[in-house]
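Hi,

Apologies if this is the wrong queue. I'm a grad student, and the batch job for NADH dehydrogenase from Marispirochaeta aestuarii produced an output file that my downstream script rejects. I'm not sure whether the problem is my script or the file. Here is the sequence I used:
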Amino acid sequence: MKDSVVVKICTGTACYVQGGSFLLDLENKLNSEELAAVRIQGVGCLGCCGDSSGPRPPFAMVDDTLFGGIDIDELTEIVRGKLQDKGNTRQNHE
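Support response: The file is valid. Your script probably expects a header line. Output copied below for reference.
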C-alpha cells in the first residue's frame, strides 16, 4: 500500500455548528479498502476562521491542502481523488 491520506476535520465550535459535525461521518462514506488507506482525525481547531476574506467553515485538511465550506459529499470525492492519485484504490467505489 502507498502512503495513506490524512484527513483533519476541524471540530472547533464555528466549524462544528456550520457542518463540521457532518464531515466526521466520512468514515461511513468510504468503503473498507478506502478506509484502510485513510487516517481521519478530528482536530480542535485549524485556525482558519479569522480570515474573513477566505473560505468559510467548515474546514478540513486533506494531506496538506485546506478546504473550506465543503460538505460530506465534496470531502468524500476529494479523499477518493487523493487515494487514486496515490494509487491506493481501484476506481469503482460501489
